[in-house]
């Protein structure tokens, strides 16, 4: 009997658009998804926890992970490394669990290159002005870093055509509900395909 693999969902979009907010709300509704905790070299923010928000590592430790081929994807973003450790994602997918990544655009495009069967969702802000306000109001970055993130945002938004779905995060509940619908419908689609495939195999074995 063929065991069905899990689906890899990738939520991406510019910094401050609300990826983390959408993901946390989605995980309160859909408890079957597994979240892949990223690794980063950036400093821990107030209120963040090791192994919950990120695995916080030194530059040397991160580079060793890269050299050993243990990252599914990684990127340098505004002066720091960010990446997805491979082992957890591969194990969960093999066990049939759906895995959710929340990552920036360079990394998402690497995953798409190496794992095109993933489902790629791009979150966009209602406007660049609103994006700026959200980053400022969050209060986690200095003025310089905010400007760097906004410069990146403009380049990142140009990549949205490469994604399977684009969701506007204007009203938070609506955005979460759209992402949830994508997750449910992709899941149903894969189950239907798997059933059809199984029926074909059974027919061939008669
Ligand atoms: N729909 C929304 N309307 C208004 N504010 C929002 C909305 N979604 C998120 N926010 C707020 O915008 C700020 C940035 O959100 P969040 O930290 O989730 O973004 P992010 O995309 O995960 O950022 P980063 O990529 O930098 O981690 C937060 O203060 C959050 O409360
Ligand atoms: N390519 C990857 N990008 C990631 C990963 N984890 C988070 N991120 C993205 O980095 C920026 C900055 O994050 P912040 O926590 O410093 O605000 C943001 O867009 C994150 O989504 C990852 O594993 N790989």
From TrEMBL:
Domain Guanylate kinase-like per the UniProt entry, residue ranges: 6-184
E.C. no: 2.7.4.8
Subcellular location: Cytoplasm
SMART domains: GuKc
The organism's place on the tree of life at top rank: Bacteria
Record keyword Transport present: no
Keyword presence, Transferase: yes
Keyword vocabulary terms for this entry: ATP-binding, Cytoplasm, Kinase, Nucleotide-binding, Transferase
Catalysed conversion reaction: GMP + ATP = GDP + ADP
Binding residue positions for ATP: 13-20
Protein name in the entry: Guanylate kinase
Family: Belongs to the guanylate kinase family.
UniProt function note: Essential for recycling GMP and indirectly, cGMP.
GO (cellular component) term, any one: cytosol
Cited CDD domains: GMPK
A GO molecular-function descriptor: ATP binding
